[in-house]
Design brief:
CATH class of the largest domain: Alpha Beta
Structural class: alpha/beta
Shape: globular
Helix content: 10-25%
CATH architecture of the largest domain: 3-Layer(aba) Sandwich
Distance between the termini: 21 Å
CATH superfamily of the largest domain: QueA-like
Order of helices and strands: EEEEEEEEEEHEHEEHEHEEEEHHE
Largest sheet: 9 strands, mixed
Strand order of the largest sheet: 2-1-19-18-14-3-12-13-17
Radius of gyration: 20 Å
Length: about 325
């Protein structure tokens, strides 16, 4: 299996990038890929339970997206607040970066921020002249390919119905299709992985193996570990649940309850040890997420599925449709 960045490219018509969610979460389409036999079916997400077998367990990521997006008072600089380091000190991403070098200042709600440090990842450490909670007045950090400001609808819809543990700057998008009714019909449990800014970062090296992932915090509760260990098959809802499960420490082949951080980068060839089935959205070209799904489904099979999805006018990315890989 090749590990070149160019192997994970495809052309997508811009009009297939979903700019808004469907009126009802459960109305998404679901492409079903069967790895044995290499077949593709076109279904609806609400049919998910018909593919669940006795003994299966859905594992979902219950992270909650922070309202982390703010703009400077003059509207020139966009901030994505990643973490409150201490009273009056924050870690953030800024755009455009050239406007905020070390020592530069900006104002939000008349509070002055001064850049103390720029990390090797390009993040800014900023000090404030008074303590303020930027999340209190923030908005949903929609991905760059959604070319509009976030609104009140996004505050609800760019969040899963089961979001619980605040800490992410991007939604675990495979979970956005679920309603409480659909979830109540399928055995499930929750893990937590706080999706970090690395999800936005492009892979810059054509040798995929040279890419390094950002570390992201995760947690598996004792209750979740017990359910996972008792299940016959594990259905990971999304790449974040997949990475959490595949990163987890084990004893005697069993998942342990734990808290930790992972920088696991899954690309082919990879030996999946926990996850049997994957529900996931459609992902950007050349992205680490597409590489993970390619490792699970098979790169050539997945490429064929993506071309069929484009031909069938599926909706792509965060607010788009999904695929179930069996």
């Amino acid at each position: 299996m090749s590990a070149r960045l160019s192997d994970y490219d495809y052309d997508l018509p811009r009009e297939l990038i979903a700019q808004r969610p469907l009126e009802r979460r459960e109305d998404s389409r679901m492409m079903v890929l069967r790895r044995v036999g290499q077949t593709i079916e076109h279904r609806q997400f609400r049919q998910l339970k018909t593919f669940v077998q006795p003994g299966d367990l859905l594992v979902l990521n219950d992270t909650r997206v922070l309202p982390a997006r703010r703009f400077s008072d003059d509207g020139v600089i966009e901030f994505l607040f990643l973490e409150r380091l201490s009273p009056a000190r924050w870690k953030c991403l800024v755009k455009p970066g050239r406007k905020l070098r070390v020592g530069a200042t900006a104002k939000i709600d008349t509070v002055t921020l001064r850049v103390e440090q720029i990390t090797t990842e390009g993040e800014r450490i900023v000090a404030l002249d008074e303590d303020i909670d930027f999340y209190a007045g923030g908005s949903m950090p929609l991905p760059p390919y959604i070319g509009r400001p976030s609104d009140e609808n996004d505050a609800a819809r760019y969040q899963t119905v089961f979001a619980h543990e605040a800490g992410a700057v991007a939604a675990p998008t495979a979970g956005l299709h679920f309603t409480p009714e659909i979830l109540s019909q399928i055995p499930h449990t929750f893990v937590t992985l706080h999706v970090g800014p690395g999800t936005f970062l492009p892979v810059r090296s054509d040798n995929v193996a040279e890419h390094r992932m950002h570390r992201e915090r995760f947690r598996i509760s004792p209750e979740a570990a017990n359910k996972i260990n008792a299940a016959r098959r594990i259905v990971a809802v999304g790449t974040t649940a997949m990475r959490t499960l595949e990163s987890a420490n084990r004893a005697d082949g069993k998942i342990l309850a734990q808290e930790g951080a992972t920088d696991l980068f899954i690309y082919a060839p990879y030996d999946f040890r926990v996850v049997d089935v994957l529900l996931t959205n459609f992902h950007l070209p050349r992205s680490t997420l597409l590489m993970l799904v390619s490792a699970f489904a098979g790169r050539e099979f997945l490429q064929r599925a993506y071309q069929e999805a484009i031909g069938e006018r599926y909706r792509f990315y965060s607010y788009g449709d999904c695929m179930l890989i069996l």
